[in-house]
Design goal:
With 94 residues, this protein is mainly alpha-helical. The chain is 70% helix and 0% strand. It is built from 5 helices and no strands. Helix 3 runs antiparallel to helix 4 and helix 3 runs parallel beside helix 5. The model has no long low-confidence stretch (mean pLDDT 86).
Length: 94
Amino acid sequence: MVFQIDVTDAFAHFGKEVPRRVPQYPIIGNAISALASRHMSMITNVEDDESPVYADKCLQVLIKAMDDPFAHWDENLLATVVILRLHEEFSHGE
């Protein structure tokens, strides 16, 4: 899945760096879990009950951050949005 994100980066920075941030930024872990669950559902042809739970956790944090005018938007939230966007694209492929 990460190949789609790192398609133009020969060093695959997104695929290597973003997972390393999960212990400090659980929102990234939830986004990765949502995407992984959606992907597994697609390849196994089994109903996906898990990915909406992880995606909703991410969206709750993102909505709170957007409501706060003093929120610190950084590359970690951006990485989460990128992963959730890919999750959304997989969702519409069904």
